[in-house]
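Sample intake sheet
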Amino acid sequence: MHSGCFAASPKAAAEVLSAWLDGELLVANTEVLDLDEEIYREGRWVVRMFAEAMTPASPRWMQGTKQRVEASGEDEIVEGLADHIREILMDDNRLLIWGSGGTLRTIGEMVGIKPTVLGIDASIGSEQIGTDLNESDLLKLLSEHDGDVTILLSPMGGQGFLIGRGNLQLSPEVLRVAGIDSVLGICTPAKLLTVRRLRIETGDSDLDAEFAGKRYMKVLQGYRTTRVLPVSVD
């Protein structure tokens, strides 16, 4: 998911191939990257470049390279995000599903939750009730829960993927049961500078269309501070 040589979706792959065959696109060198997951599990982020590939140049249809974004002076912002999540945790009947990524991991640790680095976790109130959950685990939790649900997800820097990269456990069935309005994006302002739109690829065209019908989604970028970004399923 770090490499920029992949199309944003199967439909986008068809579009870019058609445009390239028609001579409408140039080609460019694109980095082939991958994360060293063993080192990442130790708390360090090491992305290695293995090669360069000639790919059609299309910012619209190609997903682009994932960017790691860090900005000085953002500690207070992350603390503000954690304070906002603490208020959500005060609802003892709300199921929180935690997505993967460094931002959510940091926030989780601040509020007393220990999210896995690359997995999906769950909590109700201040109690962590699930770690590194798969699709079946999530569906079981949802079927047993009769309260509200919030899915916390952080978009990928540069690419903008909110659903479809790094969180495949959130299957179309899981998202339908939880409800598409349960998804809450969380992102620091520095990362938001690299995200122009929220990309959604659930693997189900009908569900993608439901997200597209929202047109815009809110992203929490600070304590009680949100920004609205357009939704893209291209």
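Comment: Residues 75-89 form the longest helix (15 residues). The radius of gyration is 18 Å.
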